[in-house]
Design a protein that fits this description.
The protein is mainly α and about 800 residues long. Among the domains are: about 1-160, Rossmann fold (3-Layer(aba) Sandwich), CATH 3.40.50; about 165-365, no CATH class; about 410-470, no CATH class; about 670-800, Serine Threonine Protein Phosphatase 5, Tetratricopeptide repeat, CATH 1.25.40. The chain is built from 38 helices and nine strands. It has a six-stranded parallel β-sheet with strand order 1-3-4-5-2-6, sandwiched between helices. Strands 7-9-8 form a three-stranded antiparallel β-sheet, with no helix packed on it. Helix 19 (about 415-430) runs antiparallel to helix 20 (about 435-455). The protein is elongated, with a radius of gyration of 33 Å. GO terms for molecular function: ADP binding. Pfam families: DUF7779, NB-ARC, TPR_10, TPR_12. InterPro entries: DUF7779, NB-ARC, NLR-like, P-loop_NTPase, TPR-like_helical_dom_sf. This is NB-ARC domain-containing protein.
Length: about 800
């Protein structure tokens, strides 16, 4: 398998000893780095040597994959493409695909004989995380940077040996006298790219060497740069022969040194750069002639198979910094901006356009589209930011958003429509990568500006207020989030109507707030209605219909309908995977909900098996500190506890509690939930005193932050009573037990399993105090309700039958 490798150079010359050293280095199992011995200089032949090595050693590998490594976004995109080709599980989104393919290569699945080439990898710190460490394959890096010296011993590339320069000059064009070739090589400094260009120029023109040297010397006097002079002769000839071709070369100097699709040069009716260039871009015959002339002078590589042209970065540098006058420079850079904007599909949320945005991205970086003074190319930058977020590269989307917001605020002002659009989206992106405080501050500031400009009854204002709701949840202020999401829902109904997708999304968001606030039955009623409407408006198989369906199942679970929640979630997860594939992260999200539903319904082995897989997938996709990963880890720690592995449950529980504390703060309800779950494990390990400390803290904070009647506070009360009972403080345990039964019955209903647990535990403590008459209503009658509600085979029912205390868990609801 062979991917993205450049075409072979049919006149590759010399470098025999270096190729042998490269083969030896790679065969020894070490990473090989091809680095220029001339600091900061391109054109030395790194990419050419790497390409030639591949073609000479194709038989040694099952997989060769070439990665343009100038930007992390390009590396991620290339690895995501590779994951899909290899059929690696988890290849649907960049966040999943990249770690999955790295792991597959590291373990040699499906190929052990692989070669990865990271071309133009200037930042070792940026590129190293993408290496499959200790894998069976080989890694080749090309770089101009000295960063790699401390990581791998580089093979230093110097200029050609003189005989190599002479050989290349003799292989193209008219016959050349060895003495003339030697003199010309001397003038060119034996720089491979410059020698190759001079040979190509002589092949086209047939000019005698001495005449070429005279023109070269004249250029040196004007430009005072050997490399620039080597091309200036060809530039001037091309300008005379075909002015449009000369200007296309100037335009392409602002694109990335990667292959440039010819699509960028066609379909440009809205673009106006110069009369000659406009005419060529609108006429396929003139455009083809211009590209042929560029190719004749060796100024670009033409790949007819992929319909691309490519300029070496050194040619681009010379054109931008040595050849163009300032006025021409500005006009051509703006022309590049226009050509890129003309190819914008203007629909970054649609996956069918992602390949186009992936193609535009490196060229937009190189052309510095962000600094354009025209709205059209700036909108392309915004759309690239949106594409990256939808594609799953949240970190890069946030980076672009931060840069755009600063630039637009400085140049356009904070109230410009594009500044406000970037700010609105950036608030969500920062939230998605866990920078909650920054997101909240930005959203508040942007909302104030939007209200000032557009007022309340405005769709942009409406979207920003939704962001504020999410911020409030991240801050742990569930009551304020519920109040605001209710207001937004009423506004949506007024602005858009009951069945508009925006209104249905507002309803879905309000149900999340209700659920976080402990109003499970109210959330269930709203989600049932939203599900019915989404089926009618969007269809049963729409991703948003699936979302509200899974939310409805969480409502059922939290409302105590464990059996029904599990049945519905089993069905939904199966249907979702059939519709969207097992590799989708949303499939893993549904599997997480199914694992919890299985545990609640008594299938502890089934829950453990599923949560093991889900946690692994989210760790690969998001890392350990992402909210979804932490929720998965907490669920898995509870499953480990139910399986009897208390040591593993405690270790994971402690790690997860600490991650919640760092990410959301000590007083966030999700942090306190992790605290309460860990306390159960500590008590079961025999450390009731340590469990008591955790549960007292959790209960105190729950009551202060979300109120004493919130189900989380009821659960903390039940578990603290168990700690006290274990420690012999039965009177206090009974007091807390009665409080939990009363509040739980009021909030959840008397048949909710949490209330059954509180009631049964209260009966045990009353009996232990000898208060048998008081204990009687909480023993046999509660056991009968266990059998009726959960079933005879449920572990909770069986534990109650043995007279064992019930422990209650909290599974944080995703925000």
């Amino acid at each position: 398998m062979f991917g993205n490798v450049p075409p072979r150079n049919p006149i590759f010359t010399g470098r025999g000893e270096l190729l042998k050293q490269l083969a030896k280095r790679l065969n020894s199992g070490t990473t090989a780095v091809l680095r220029s011995a001339l600091h900061g200089l391109g054109g030395i032949g790194k990419t050419q040597i790497a390409t030639e090595y591949i073609y000479r050693h194709l038989q040694d590998y099952d997989l060769v994959w070439w990665i343009n490594a100038a930007h992390t976004t390009q590396i991620r995109a290339s690895l995501t493409e590779l994951a899909g080709i290899l059929g690696v599980t988890g290849a649907s989104e960049v966040n999943t695909a990249v770690p999955a393919v790295i792991e597959a290569l590291r373990t040699g699945r499906p190929f052990r004989r692989w070669l990865l080439v990271f071309d133009a990898a200037e930042s070792a710190e940026t590129v190293l995380p993408f290496f499959p460490r200790n894998g069976p394959g080989e890694i080749l890096v090309t770089s101009r940077s000295s960063d790699w010296a401390g990581i791998a011993r580089p093979l230093e590339l110097a200029v050609f040996k003189r005989e190599e320069s002479v050989e290349l000059l003799g292989r193209r064009g008219p016959e050349i006298d060895p003495a003339d070739a030697d003199e010309l090589a001397e003038k060119l400094g034996d720089l491979p790219l410059a020698v190759e260009q001079a040979a190509a120029w002589r092949a086209v023109t047939g000019m005698p060497v001495q005449e070429y040297l005279r023109l070269f010397d004249e250029s040196v006097e004007e430009i005072l740069d050997t490399v620039a002079a080597a091309w200036n002769v060809s530039f001037e000839e091309l300008k005379t022969r075909n002015p449009a071709a000369h200007q296309i070369l100037h335009i392409c100097a602002f694109f990335s040194p990667e292959p440039i699709s010819r699509d960028l040069l066609t379909g440009v009716n809205r673009v106006s750069i110069s009369p000659e260039l406009d005419a060529a871009l609108r006429d396929p015959i003139k455009l083809a002639r211009a590209i042929r002339d560029i190719n004749r002078y060796g100024l670009a590589k033409i790949d007819h198979g992929n319909n691309t042209l490519q300029l070496h970065r050194l040619v681009q540098l010379v054109l931008r910094n040595r050849v163009m006058a300032r006025q021409v420079h500005a006009r051509m850079q703006h022309g590049a901006h226009q050509l890129l904007a003309a190819l914008d599909p203007n629909d970054p949320e649609s996956s069918r356009h992602w390949s186009r945005y992936r193609e535009l991205l490196p060229h937009a970086y190189a052309a510095n589209v962000l600094d354009c003074d025209n709205d059209w190319p700036r909108q392309l930058y915004i759309n690239l930011m949106r594409y990256l977020f939808e594609y799953g590269d949240h970190e890069e989307a946030a980076r672009l958003g931060l840069e755009a917001r600063k630039r637009f605020t400085d140049v356009l002002g904070p109230t410009h429509p594009q500044t406000l659009e970037v700010s609105s989206r950036l608030g969500l992106y920062l939230w998605a990568i866990g920078r909650y405080a920054e997101a909240a501050e930005l959203n508040q500031r942007t909302l104030a500006l939007r209200l000032q400009i557009s007022g309340e009854e405005n769709e942009e204002t409406f979207a920003l207020q939704r962001n504020i709701t999410i911020d409030l949840r991240a801050q742990g202020d569930f009551a304020a989030a519920t109040k605001l999401s209710e207001e937004i829902l009423h506004k949506a109904k007024r602005m858009f109507g009951e069945d508009d997708p925006e209104t249905l999304h507002a309803a879905y968001q309000h149900a999340i707030s209700l659920r976080l606030g402990g109003a499970y039955r109210e959330a269930l009623e709203l989600d049932q209605d939203t599900l019915r409407r989404r089926i009618e408006v969007l269809g049963r198989d729409h991703v948003r219909t699936f979302s509200v369906n899974s939310a409805r199942n969480v409502d059922l679970r939290e409302a105590g309908e464990y059996g029904q929640a599990r049945i519905q979630q089993e069905r939904l997860t199966e249907n979702f995977i059939a519709r969207f594939g097992a590799d989708q992260l949303d499939s893993a999200g549904n599997s997480l909900l199914l694992a919890v539903a299985r545990r609640k319904d008594g299938d502890h082995p089934g829950a453990l098996s599923l949560s093991t897989d889900v946690l692994k997938r989210f760790r690969l996709a998001y890392g350990d500190d992402h909210g979804t990963t932490m929720a998965s880890a907490l669920a898995h720690s509870i499953d480990l506890r139910h399986s009897g592995d208390l040591a593993a449950a405690r270790k994971l529980g402690e790690e997860t509690f600490e991650r919640y504390r760092r990410g959301l703060g000590e007083h966030h309800p999700h942090t306190l939930a992790a605290n309460a779950d860990l306390a159960v494990t500590l008590r079961l390990q025999g450390d009731a005193a340590a469990a008591r400390v955790l549960d007292e803290r959790a209960l105190e904070q729950f009551r202060a932050i979300i109120g004493p009647d919130h189900p989380y506070a009821v659960i903390a009360t039940i578990n603290l009573a168990s700690d006290l009972s274990e420690l012999g403080e039965l009177d206090r345990a009974v007091e807390l037990g009665r409080d939990a039964v009363e509040r739980g019955t009021q909030v959840l209903g008397e048949d909710h399993p949490t209330v059954l647990a509180a009631s049964f535990n209260l009966g045990l403590d009353l009996a232990a105090l000898g208060r048998t008459d008081e204990a009687a209503p909480f023993s046999a009658p509660i056991l009968a309700r266990y059998r009726r509600i959960l079933g005879e085979a449920h572990p909770g029912t069986q534990a109650a039958g043995r007279g064992a205390r019930a422990n209650c868990d909290i599974d944080p609801i995703l925000m």
